[in-house]
Amino acid sequence: MVEGFLENTTIIDYSDKNYQKTKFLSISQVNLTPHENGTKWINTYGLAYQSDFKAIILNNKLDDFLIKLLMEDDHATKVILLEDLMFVAIKVLKTEGKTLEDEQMIFMVSPHFLWSIQEKPGDYFNWIRERLEGHKGIVRKKKADYLLYLIIEAIIDNYQETYLKHEEISDSKLNATHIKPTPEFTSLVESRKQELFSFKKAAISLRDMIVKLEKAKIRGIDVKYFSEIKEQTNNLITNIDFELQELESKINLIFSIQGHRLNEVMKTLTILSVIFIPLTFLAGIYGMNFHNMPELKSENGYFILLGIMVLVTVISVWYFKRKKWF
Q1: Which of the residues 57, 100, 175, 271 has the least number of beta carbons within 10 Å of its own beta carbon?
Q2: Tens digit of each residue's pLDDT (9 = 90 or more) over 36-57
């Protein structure tokens, strides 16, 4: 497991004047003690290296409560304050594929280092690495708290971009001109709703974490950065709620269209039934074979009855037209 851990772990050691990116050759090289005025960003892909995590925590004399936290298989959104250290866990969405999946992310933050552990390989933090390497902006002048702020902001931006991209696709398929009461259209609406529920769950989890970070009080970590990004998550949640309401309106419109079509069919069948009921009645009377029915012996009885039936039909249709039933 050591080789797997080392292959999936990198370290960026930076300060205002220095930058170095390296990989480890052994667990003993994982030193979380920074250089003077420097900051370290250790990033690990994978959660299955418990023995390696334990060795690093003990070698660097970190709070051993971290060992217990890292041994847990699944974490809800949590922010735990330890001595000069903060443990942060959250579930985030993986948006690279066609379907939205979630992954566990863990951050251990002190004033001088940030250790990020991601459940699955790949992320959307390359722009942060590029800014560190190119000395762009103020990131290399700041400490690990600002780095955590940038990582959280990258997660929010990724949510926003993916949400807007899916929203455009959804609008093209589910706009008002394409509303049809068909199983296919209903399936598209329900599929989009499930996507939005996933986005909303992830955004609420992220907002809860930011709220907890805002209230954290730990020496050397400035929480003012996190207040700036809480509004972004609130805006995303608001947009999601608004689209969910739109989708509910479309579902209600589909049911209304189906109900209207059913009413039209029932009205047509009812009108036809009302027209043919008196005709059936007359046919039933003169279909009886009694000898004392004088009309049966009438030479023109058949034609008279047909005329009466036509007259009844015309009167019925005129009456329905007058009442604007069709």
Answers
A1: 175
A2: 678 899 999 988 888 888 998 8
> Is residue 107 over pLDDT 90?
yes
> Which residue's entry shows tokens 């993916």?
162
Whether 128 and 274 share a structural domain: no
Residue 154 vs residue 31, higher pLDDT: 154
Cα 76 to chain centroid distance, Å, stands at: 18
User: Token pair 């037209």 is at which residue?
Assistant: 321
Beta carbons within 10 angstroms of residue 11's beta carbon: 20
| pTM of the entire predicted model | 0.75
Taking the alpha carbons at both ends of the chain, their separation in whole angstroms is 78
Q: Spell out a b/e string for 22-58, using b for 16 or more CB atoms within 10 Å of the CB, else e.
A: eebeebeebebebeeebbbbbbbbbbebeebbebbbe
User: In terms of Cα–Cα distance, which of 41, 42, 44, 68 is closest to 54?
Assistant: 68
161-178 pLDDT, tens digit per residue, is 888 887 776 766 666 666
Number of compact structural domains in the chain: 2
Rounded Cα–Cα distance for residues 279 and 313 (Å): 8
Provide the residue range defining the domain that includes 308. 263-322
